[in-house]
Design goal:
This protein has about 280 residues and is of the alpha/beta class. It folds into 3 domains: about 80 residues, Winged helix-like DNA-binding domain superfamily/Winged helix DNA-binding domain (Arc Repressor Mutant, subunit A, Orthogonal Bundle), CATH 1.10.10; about 100 residues, 3-Layer(aba) Sandwich (D-Maltodextrin-Binding Protein, domain 2); about 90 residues, D-Maltodextrin-Binding Protein, domain 2. The chain is about 45% helix and about 25% strand.
Amino acid sequence: MSQSLDIDLLRSFVAIAETGVLGQAALRVGRTQSALSMQMRKLEGIVAQPLLHRTGRGVSLTATGERLLVRAGELLRRHDEALAELRGQQLSGVLRFSCPDDYAVVFLPFLLQGFASLHPGVQLEVMCAPTPRLHELLARHAVDLALVSVAGDSAGADAIRHEPLVWVARRGSTAVALDPLPLALGAPDALDHQLPRRALEAAGRAYRLAYASSSLSGLVGMARSGLAVTVLTRTAVPEDLQILGADDGFPELPSVGVTLALAREAPTALTAAFAAHVRKFLPLA
């Protein structure tokens, strides 16, 4: 009996191929890691070939997996375009979207690719900045909507997901034990700057601000230098850096809520469609 390539299986396969990590792929498609693994076993059964190499650091594609990835991308694009056209959902125009750097690195690729496949007539303009600057852009109507951070306890029902803040340093860095602790933090009015300082002050640990920047690459660079400890959202931590916890002498940090902010109370159909897309594909953690 012949079997067909299921669209959901292909979408999960592409998510794994693009992230290389089952956990991130599971978040993208809204499934548990165990359910994702079952899907891949089913897909491998359909094609009668192994598709993934599983290692301690993640997954990579086999030669068959590489060939399937090319075909899967084409099939998904045609499927999504056809579905959007049949539903009468073709939109056009310019959409101006903003988010912080760390969300851009982790979330933007699949959010934008997915929306572009549904609405090829839309031109997306993206700007990255810390949340306080994003609110300024929204107030000036310089962007249409933005993915922003809010204090976890104030996110409420508007939160799309929650992102834990974590202490991060180079493995074996001597900066971890220094007194005062050298910190590399984001913009002074941003949550990822204010919350770590409050946590250290509450714990009675001395610190000094060695570097302040709204650039994610700058903060990661300082951590990689071994000269400072920084704070990132957990999903934005590169694999070569170490997450520090209570055993390393660091107080627990709160999570921040991730939500959408719109420039206008009555958004356009295009803005509303992208907001719905984000809420669908960025589920609560």
